[in-house]
Specification:
This protein is mostly helical. The chain is built from three helices and no strands.
Length: 54
């Protein structure tokens, strides 16, 4: 986040600018994140599959 701030402060970055910095700093490919969470209105649907009690 620091690199993103330092690179883009007082400028007009896009969502892709953010994604590019995050990919550079993490070493991960995050295109799936952009496609799923930025380009759609989809949300994460968390659910509990089972509960095991003691």
């Amino acid at each position: 986040m620091l690199k993103y701030h330092d690179t883009w402060k007082m400028k007009h970055p896009t969502a892709l600018d953010f994604l590019n910095i995050m990919e550079q700093e993490s070493g991960m490919i995050l295109d799936w994140y952009y496609e799923y969470f930025v380009q759609t209105t989809k949300t994460i649907d968390y659910g509990i599959e089972s509960v095991v009690g003691d």
